[in-house]
Amino acid sequence: MSEKLLKPGTYFMMGNMACVEAALIAGCRFFAGYPITPSSEIFERASLRFPQVGGVAVEMEDELGSMAAIIGASYAGAKAMTATSGPGFSLMMENIGLAFIMEAPVVVVNVQRAGPSTGIPTLVGQGDVMQARWGSHGDLETIAYCPSSVQEFFDLTIKAFNTAERFRTPVFVLADQVVGMMWERLRVPQYEEIEVVERERLSPDMLGSRPPFDYSQDFNPMPIVGTGCRVNVDSLTHDERGYPTTDHAVSERMLSHLLGKIRNHAHEIWRWEEQMMDDAEIAVIAYGSTARSALKAVKTARSRGIRVGLVKLLTIWPFPDELIEKISQKVNAIVVPEINYGQLIHPVKEHAKCPVVGVNWAPGSLIEPHVIVDALEVIAA
Amino acid sequence: MSELQVLAGREIIAQSHVRDTLLRAERLPHIWCPGCGIGIVLGAYAHAVERSSIPVEKHVCISGIGCTGRVSGYMNLDSFHTTHGRAIAFATGMALFRPELEITVISGDGDITTIGGNHLIHAARRNVDINVIMVNNFNYGMTGGQHGATTPLEAKTYTTPYGNIETPFNVPYLVAAAGASFVARWTTLHVRQLAKAVERMMEVEGFAFLEVVSPCPPTFGEFNGFPEALDMMEYFRKHCVVDHSADLSKIGIGLKPGEKLVVGNFVDRRRPSYQELLEEMRGRAMGGEHK
Ligand code: SF4
Fold first, then answer.
1. Strand ranges in A15-79 using DSSP code E only, listed in sequence order
2. Where are the domains of chain A?
3. N or C: which end of chain B has fewer CB within 10 A?
């Protein structure tokens, strides 16, 4: 089927389309979606491309259905995804919790727009950062990657599938309208340079010596339907056999396992890039399309003699606490620009040992670099 | 065969049952109340799985939330206890990716028609090849007896203390209109017809839907003239009329004395399933047809 995948080479492509091509290269063959701006090109291209490679792209009746369908497909053995924006992401929260407790690898792409509520569907926002972390009820540990270019949207979509397969958990690609709709240069590497991870599968003979959900292990092979495992997979708190329970000790074991498998391996998930940080006295910490404005601002401030660097976060959840702590010990201040009224700044403040200042603007447009430069000048003075 | 042990008293205790391999016997006793009809439905499903020509490892049982939602967890199959109302959407994703699976959703009326009503009509419209068995006990049992989209007019529940003023769904009519290949209704009194209908559903291509009218003595029966399980079984015996070609627009359930309760295999028609159409479309796409 690889002749139907996007060939290695250089392209000029839209972010939303690059996301679909990346998913196919990562081995995704099931897409369930519901149209929503500014992510619709993902669904449209998936509808064109998935059937060409023998996959399925289905329109569900709503985002509750899309999210449920991809979990079902995941347990049928598929690498499965959906794509949405804020309002749809809200509707998915219930079944994101289901994917978490059922340990179903799935990828959810959220091309963020201006909110709250219907907000401004066609304009950019970064208002779903905290929802991606805390939106589903109960205690979850989530994983979210934030691309700031078409290339990163492509690369991090593949990464998201690999992480989902390894951790058996839902993984978010938290893009935004600018990154989703922008056209930019995209380099598709040779396939052998691209890492593609496959989940470990449970087989019926393994069940003789181990339970399907071994909470003493961080990672368990997945029982795929139709292979004779006959495992019960439950949304209720369940024991090692998958049976519902209200036992406190079992509940504690299950939760420690679900949270621990991500917390204990956060180092594997964290991705970031540093620029001009060697002699920096101020660090700008940015993610998504804001990182583009931040880079320009850092360069401008440098030209005016301010020693500032950029830390671009490609992973925002699990929060890279050790990184922030380390950086905050090297600089005098941290600036966090976001297209929202202050979200990721909260964990930054929690872990930083230096003063932290937010630059916030969210009426539906990018933060212009000069706004960040102004803040840097005030702080430097 | 069953292995029976006669104890010192006159009690006979079954040590095993022919269907034990299909049940997670170690999870018994189940959580259902005495007189509940859900066990009969579970039995009919197990019977149909046993008789079906499809290998047992290809059968998948999926439930939503509620009393009936517990069925999947007692079946020794690939089983999924999902979120409230979403079992059909979950099953749709699974069925489209692996069409060779025999997927049966078993859930309650509140789960399937009230919170999950949208998924129900769209799965029927797409004619997704799955089976849906809906146990209709006219109320939310697990949460203590509140009304839902199937509660008859004037019925008393904890949330309709003055009598229900909402017109309930006539579910077979709804699902047939939406496009399902197979639509039936039986009651827990019709044990054999029930099992036969489920067997037939496993053969049907496309969306197969079965409503099973069932007693729920403690949370619905108690306030509506059926305090004992037998009261409702007696109602079924006296009021049920088998009519496979009934006018579906006229078979809503009021549970009134003297009113007919129409049961039967109402719809059994050949329409292309979503999976068949998908396969055909994918053939065209893989052959290079696109704009
Ligand atoms: S409340 Fe009703 S439906 Fe639930 S187990 Fe009891 S009798 Fe059955």
1. 30-33, 56-59
2. 2-193, 201-266, 273-380
3. C
